[in-house]
Amino acid sequence: MRVEPLQSIPGDGPRHALTVDVEDWYQSCVDYDAPVTERVVRNVDRMLSVFADCGVLGTFFVQGLVAERYPGVVGAIAGAGHEVQVHGHTHRPLHAMSRDELREDLVRAKEVIEAALGAETTMFRAPDFSIGPSNLWAIELLVELGFTVDSSIFPARTAHYGIADWCVGPHHLVLGDGRRILEVPVTVWEVGGMRLPTGGGGYFRLLPRAVLERGFRAATAAGRPGVAYFHPYEFAPDELKGYPEVARRVRLHQGLGRRRAVERMRGLFGTLAFGRLSDVLRSFGLATLAAAVAC
User: Fold this and answer.
1) Which of 3, 83, 116, 225 has a beta carbon 3.0–4.6 Å from 59's, enabling a disulfide?
2) Predicted local distance difference test score (pLDDT) of residue 122
């Protein structure tokens, strides 16, 4: 497999992709075998309301278990004009699965999401950005199953995921037989010889808003799209109540910044142009296989 960087040419349209990983916090972060709860429905409804109020559209990577238990969530997302794509089925990290286990997970997720959506899915994001140096072979399965866009490789090394020095802009991953998939990393800000995660998640809750904006503006200045990622539960201030068995340290870390998250998101939408991932790729001319250049 080789990495083929791309030349992007900004045109009319949104500069930054708004993406959401739709999952239930306890099931996806604490116990993969726990049932998905109705909390995810309430959290998605809240997020859809905020997006509608701000006049923005995004791409929702939906977990298969969510679509299976609450197919109406998929309909609500699509009905509001957002894209629906795939976030795996069980939320188990990809590097913890064998090829056969991963194939089964992907096929099941694709089946239940497409059944609820009534349309094909072509984009994927791995739970917890769990495609890394040890399991890049997962890309081969994505291509085999018909995915054309992936956003799973985090282009910086963190304590739990990511690949140091990976290409920060959109690029093709080309298999040995010539088949390819467009890889679109989430935003990191290259500053002072470091890569600072500014794309979303816990970083969105904890970093100063000015730092987050600088990360996205730097992407624009470099001629590449920014990619933000969020989770519906991050905008529920009381999400962690009712889980006494969860360690206090985890509740503290996961709870920091939640009460101001919606306000911060509104501020970000008011200063930067966000849209669906497909629209952003089209805006940058990346839907038509741009020519290869250096990262």
Assistant:
1) 83
2) 96
Percent of the chain with pLDDT over 90: 71
CB 89 within 8 A of CB 51: no
φ, ψ (nearest 5 deg) of residue 164: -60, 140
H helix or E strand, kind and range, residue 62: strand 59-62
- Identify any residues that bridge with 61 across adjacent strands, giving them in sequence order: 21, 85
Quote the distance between the C-alpha of residue 71 and its chain's center. Answer: 20
d(CA 82, CA 18): 10
Q: What is the pLDDT of residues 28-82, one digit of tens each?
A: 989 999 999 999 999 999 999 999 999 999 999 999 999 999 999 999 999 999 9
**Tens digit of pLDDT for each residue in 206-256?**
888 899 999 999 999 998 999 999 999 988 888 877 777 888 777 777 777
Long-range interactions of 185-188: CB distance < 8 A, separation 24+: 185/151, 185/153, 185/154, 185/155, 185/227, 186/19, 186/129, 186/151, 186/154, 186/155, 186/227, 186/228, 186/229, 187/16, 187/215, 187/216, 187/219, 187/226, 187/227, 187/228, 188/154, 188/155, 188/156, 188/215
Q: Is the dihedral of CA 188, 189, 190, 196 positive or negative?
A: negative
User: What is the per-residue DSSP string for 201-237?
Assistant: HHHHHHS-HHHHHHHHHHHHHTT--EEEEE-GGGG-T
